[in-house]
Amino acid sequence: MIKYLQLQMQGDAYLKCVNPKCGLEYPIMSTNVQCENGHVLDVIYKNKPSPDLKETFYERRDSKGNIFNESGVWRFRDLLNFCQIDTEDNDECSKYLVSLDGAEGRQSKPYQMSKAAEFLGINKEGLWLQPEGYNPSGSFKDNGMVTAVTHAKMVGAKKIVCASTGNTSASAGMFAANEGIKCDVYIPAGQIAPGKLSQAYQFGAQIIQVEGNFDDALKQSLDDAKNYDGYTVNSVNPFRIEGQKTIPFRALEYLNWESPDWIIYPGGALGNTSSCGKALMELYQWGWIKKIPRIAVINSDGASTLSDLYNGEFEDEELRWNKGNPNTELISRYYDHLDKEKLRPKTKATAIQIGRPANIIKGLRALEFTNGVVTTVSDSEMLDGMSVVGLNGFDCEMASGASVAGIKKLMGEGIIKKDDVVVGILTGRQKDAMIPVDYHSNPQNVFANPPKK
Ligand code: F0G
Q1: How far separated are the first and last CA of the chain, in Å rounded?
Q2: Of these four, 12, 117, 161, 197, which has the most CB atoms within 10 Å of its CB?
Q3: Calpha distance 282→110 (Å, rounded)
Q4: Is any ligand 1 atom within 6 A of the Cβ of residue 375?
């Protein structure tokens, strides 16, 4: 702790409110997830990293026994250096950085998947799908959880807390167990795939069942964290966002830092969208990339808050970042409307069954910076997307199928072109065994392969 305080004196990294009119700043050891005026925070770095680091990152792929080089997150540690360490020494790194033996992000990179390309009617060389399900807890969450838990360790937290639709709880539970700290997870009762919940149990997390949906569970977990000294590791935590920046970093590195035309994510709480936006803003500002890829966020038809607001389907107003001054009253009125009409988010892809995306403000900033688009897909389209990924020998869960289905929809609308270079993020691995079993048992489904009698 004392060592950290000394490091902090160097003052390269700090927290800053995202609202340009407010802009309140906090020291890096702060555990606030919001400024005094209720706006979300960014981690800001004063130093401008040299593009020569591209070579360093490449060289670290030969890990030389350093688990922090093996890690697909910490390999890029110089671009998320809120701990302010500057060393290649494994033992020195392990005093500060949390890692599951370098496994987080290690197997993640973009792959070309020809059957998916054929299904989409897109140029096969231009389609890249990046499975994040091969992370140690089975989803992209591990990328951001190592950085959040690193910060928790920095500030001496004894307990981490999260709300979850499943994957966050598995990831938080895993790293908490490995670090010997407690973990409370708040889940919407009866709405979590057993395969995800069983991971949280297995890792010794304390499950707290909340009557209601994910949005209710998040609210309760944030209140309890505040009142009972818990450290929140949901993506409202700005340190989560730092680790998740490595998802686009890895994609870009494999494309020799030449920007694709598009990066596609399923949209839930919008932590991914926010982190991709921040990564691209920083890389552009530092002169590492010349072209800004466009982000496409794919909501489910049944949980379409961002799409409804962004596309002007509520009160005919298109919600925008608006130079840091988004119409938050419009968002509040939309939530009131959901409550009044008893409209609850509903999709079989429970990972993205979210009505109040906690990162909507940063998400809007990401969309503005990248000239992004938002659309929705149906449950059956997501299942087809998930299934065609399987035919390429890769596993992903239904919510991740939204990335594939979203590309198809946007191509159909002429927004994504056949010759565009597209990176779709496959956010998690299958943990609900019955989803593919049911899909393949129904011969009506596009890729169904029913069992023979
Ligand atoms: N895909 C998967 C597999 C997820 O688990 C989630 C979110 C998302 C996409 C949405 O990502 O929130 O960054 O927009 N799951 C959270 C959880 C909410 O609790 O596991 P986002």
Answers
A1: 64
A2: 161
A3: 21
A4: no
Whether residue 168 has its Cβ less than 6 Å from ligand 1: yes
Q: 347-365 pLDDT, tens per residue?
A: 999 999 999 999 999 999 9
Give the pLDDT confidence score for residue 1 in this predicted structure.
44
Q: Is 234 in the pocket of ligand 1 (CB under 6 A)?
A: no
Q: Report the nearest atom of ligand 1 relative to the CA of 162.
A: 19
Asked if residue 271 has its Cβ within 6 Å of ligand 1, the reply is yes
The whole-number average pLDDT for the span 431-451 is 97
Mean per-residue pLDDT for 379-390? 98
Q: Is 145 in the pocket of ligand 1 (CB under 6 A)?
A: no
Contacts of 363 (CB under 8 A, 6+ apart): 267, 270, 273, 274, 277, 297, 306, 357
What are 4's strand-pairing partners? none
Q: Which atom of ligand 1 lies closest to the CA of 244? A: 13
